[in-house]
Design a protein that fits this description.
single chain, Rossmann fold, 13 strands, binds pyridoxal-5'-phosphate, binds zinc ion
Length: 415
């Protein structure tokens, strides 16, 4: 496949070494660090700018094709990814003491999570490379997303997930026809085995961190937020963090729009982690390397012992002058009905963590009430109903009888 003129280099985040697009598939040839795609921004500026975007009626992530690592539209999956709604959420904002609060509802993607942005770009790239089998390790959502978006395509999908993945996510895998390998172990074990399998069988590996193109899909969410806020940058964006690929992707998006002259200001990014899955927070606050943690949390999508894009995540927090906050499982669970009742959006635990993090940060005076804040809702609540109901009341059970109903209404002051 011919080199793409718009791409200058794949640069190592760790040592800075440059690679040609055609000479490397995954990580740095010198140090094994994760790579990031550096474009020819002067060239792109001519094709992608404020005027062009204003006239573009493609309401999907493909409206940013000029700054994606793809030759064109030919190989993109056939369902709509991206351009998810951004809501101003007044009731939730009032509850948090942050009147200028927005929700970016990425649970509205085809497989009901943010991961579709990454899978869409990686699948298109894999098809341009004529890859036949695509694989990934995942806590659940990256896998459901890959399975969903390859569903009708002439491409085999092999999935490695930990056995504890929530049933709805596993159902998605099976429905879309992926080969599902459930690992008796954690996400980190699934990741390592997937890596070995890809090397052994020559499968194309979408796994987070090592694949330089997941971040490219993820950055499109930042582009959308800028456009949906009428080219104003929010002051802060709260992102839940496991591997650290979403937050580093979001940051890349804001930085690229800034570099293209499309926005004037950069936001601060706030990383929200579960208390025992907080390796990125620890590394950011100590200034040291990423060290493994237990990774235990009910929020399965951010349950990670050793973050696979941790260094890029730390850089995103630091460069954006943001901070990190950790929340308990109890805080995550109670955030689910709070978000639902304050915004009409049902979030899965990992996504709800952003609101728990906002509550905590606001209480500590780290968010001013004049600031505009976006919470990224990265996955839909139907992905993990079992956790959600733990935080809610129970339904009433009665016979189909008016007298019983009357008693119930009176007892519970329903009328
Ligand atoms: C994957 C995921 C995250 C975390 O993204 P990372 O790139 O691993 O930091 C957060 N929320 C949801 C719903 C996810 O699926
Ligand atoms: Zn390197």
């Amino acid at each position: 496949m011919a080199a793409m003129k718009k791409i200058k280099t794949l640069q190592c985040i760790n040592c800075g070494r440059d690679h040609k697009l055609t000479e490397v598939k995954y990580t740095c040839a010198s140090c094994g660090g994760n790579l990031q795609v550096i474009y020819d921004y002067n060239l792109i500026k001519k094709r992608l700018n404020y005027e062009v975007l204003k006239e573009n009626h493609d309401l999907t992530l493909w409206r940013y094709m000029e700054i994606l690592p793809l030759a064109g539209f030919k190989m993109i999956p056939p369902v709509q990814v991206g351009w998810t709604p951004l809501y101003k959420v007044e009731r939730l904002g009032a509850a948090a003491g942050v009147p200028n609060l927005y929700i970016k509802d990425d649970g509205r993607n085809p497989s009901a999570s943010f991961k579709d942005r990454a899978s869409a770009v990686v699948i298109a790239r894999a098809r341009e490379l004529k890859e036949k089998v695509i694989t990934t390790a995942s806590t659940g959502n990256a896998a459901s997303s890959l399975a969903c978006l390859t569903g009708s395509l002439d491409m085999k999908t092999v999935i490695f997930v930990p056995e504890i993945a929530p049933a709805p996510k596993v159902a998605q895998l099976l429905v879309f026809g992926a080969a599902v390998i459930m690992i008796k172990g954690a996400y980190d074990d699934a990741f390592d085995l997937c890596l070995k399998a890809a090397a052994e069988y020559g499968w194309y590996n979408r796994s987070t961190g090592i694949n330089p193109f997941t971040r490219e899909g993820k950055k499109t969410c930042a582009f959308e937020i800028c456009e949906q806020m009428k080219w104003e940058t929010p002051d802060k964006v709260f992102v839940s963090v496991g591997d650290g690929n979403i937050i580093s992707g979001m940051w890349k998006g804001f930085v690229e729009f800034h570099r293209l002259g499309i926005i004037e200001k950069l936001p601060q990014l706030v990383a929200v982690q579960a208390e025992k899955s907080d390796a990125v927070k620890r590394a950011f606050e100590s200034g040291g390397d990423i060290q493994p943690v237990s990774g235990e949390t009910i929020a399965d999508s951010i349950s990670v012992s050793l973050p696979r894009d941790g260094m890029a995540a730390v850089m995103a927090i630091r460069d954006s002058k943001g901070f990190a906050v950790s929340v308990t499982d109890a805080e995550i669970l109670s955030a689910i009905p709070e978000i639902a009742r304050g915004s009409n959006v049902f979030a899965e635990p990992a996504a709800a963590a952003t609101y728990a993090g906002l509550r905590k940060a606001a209480k500590e005076g780290k968010v001013k009430d004049s600031e505009s804040v976006v919470l990224l809702i990265s996955g839909n609540g139907l992905k993990d109903v079992q956790s959600a109901v733990k935080a809610c009341g129970r339904p009433f059970h009665i016979n189909p009888d008016m007298d019983e109903l009357k008693k119930l209404v009176a007892d519970n002051k329903l009328a």
